[in-house]
Amino acid sequence: MASRIAVKNIEFSERRVPFQHPFRFGAVTVNEAPQMFVHVTIEVNGEHNYGASAELMVPKWFNKDPSLSAADTIDQLRQSAEIARSLYLDRKTPDTAFGLHAACTSAQVAACRKVGIPALAANFGAAEIDKAILDALLRSQQMDFFTGMRNNIAGLDASLTPDLDDSAISDFLTERTISPRIAVRYTIGMLDTVGSIEEAIRTKYRYFKIKLCGDPAKDHARLIEIAAPLADSNYQATLDANEQYQSIADLNALVNALRTDKALGTLSARVLYIEQPFARENTWNFDIRALAANTAFIIDEADDSYDAFPRSKALGYRGVSSKSCKGLYKSLLNGARAALWNRAGGNFFISAEDLTCQAGLAIQQDNALVAFHGLAHAERNGHHYVNGFANTPSDEAESFLAAHADLYERSCGMVRLAVHEGTIAAKSLAVPGFACALQPGNIGPHNEKLDTKEHVA
């Protein structure tokens, strides 16, 4: 039976993360962003235990309202976290980790909505607190994430997913086969050059994620350019529109080009799926079943609620992204849905996407979630848009290297993610706590207050 916990304290801190290359997705270019760290204290069986989480606060993704500045959207994520903090601390009756989340999630979304924060951004604050609570809970039991989740240490149930029952959730958790290594899906952003693709091929990346701009003619031409350096390699690719397509007709033009242009023949055969073609709010206005007959589509930004995946399934989508910044429990319950639907003859899936998880706690917790799903590959932006541990203090970076020597390496004077043969390791993540051997108190800047201005072009 899952332990019942009471949350005693939640603290936030931030660290500035500069990018070594600009990252353009959709209509946004990001050069730096703050990383939030969450530290919690929980009480389990009369004893206090501690946990932590971390996540980059990417501007203009959780909310793309053009009337808001980059700084405005970052402030919304901070406010989301503060609102969640109050809700979680106000729950005085001990509950399971998931029970606490389930009790707070509707109130979190409603409170954020009152101050103009959309659901996706509202989910961020709760998601980061949930990860830190789970870390503390696992440490209290001296249990690793994989063992803990197989045994449902968090107490997942069907209270937020009436289309599932508890047995479907239990079956999904207990049947997981953990991925020992995860292939890195190399992101080709809108500003990345053919030269960067060639370098990725030389270093044996075999999965690529290609960003699209939403103009079918421009995307057609760009895909031809990208296909050329990939031609002689054994690869697979995904396409990400980041909400840029405006109509079914435009999306049909892109799909038709992939199917009919001989210059795209090899690339087309190796495209696994197209991600989030329409703006999140317009997703629900377009039935894509005809287009999806021979092309798989997934939602990402539209995945802002527990009913989003079933709703998108009815429109022709076959998948949904897993991102720990959107909520690890929603990711797992969506996995249970896909498994249930596939037992009935479907072909549904969870994909592993990344909103620039940074070296250290953030990428380790997300990697553990990806590995628990049993996924073979994951988008990993942070390893090439950010220079390793960037401006993390050297003693902290060195501690991560010593504790997780299979996941990191030292090169060019910097501790960075160790990508070998295009893959990263997950073995050292099986330690007490949520995928990190370091003690929570040794991670992050804690009460440090930094200038976290973002630069968005």
What's the CATH H-level homologous superfamily of the largest domain?
Enolase-like C-terminal domain
Uncertain runs are 447-457
* Overall outline: globular
Indicate the CATH class of the largest domain: Alpha Beta
How far apart lie the N and C ends? 50 Å
Q: β content, as a range?
A: 15-25%
Which CATH-level-2 architecture of the largest domain? Alpha-Beta Barrel
Number of strands: 14
Order of helices and strands: EEEHHHHHEHEHEHHEEHEHEHEHHEEE
Residue share in helix: 25-40%
Q: What is the oligomeric state here?
A: single chain
Q: Number of helix segments?
A: 14
Structural class: alpha/beta
Write down the overall mean pLDDT: 94
| CATH topology description of the largest domain | TIM Barrel
> What profile does the largest beta sheet have?
9 strands, mixed
Radius of gyration: 21 Å
**What is the total number of structural domains?**
2
Structure characterization notes:
This protein has 14 helices and 14 strands. It is α/β, with parallel strands linked by helices and about 450 residues long. The strands form three sheets. Strands 4, 5, 6, 7, 8, 9, 10, 11 and 14 form a nine-stranded mixed beta sheet that branches. A three-stranded antiparallel beta sheet has the order 1-2-3. A two-stranded antiparallel ribbon has the order 12-13. β9 (about 320), α11 and β10 (about 350) form a beta-alpha-beta unit. α1 crosses α3, α6 (about 195-200) runs parallel beside α7 and α7 (about 215-230) runs parallel beside α8 (about 250-260). The radius of gyration is 21 Å and the shape is globular. The N and C termini lie far apart (about 50 Å). Mean pLDDT is about 95; it is low at about 445-455.
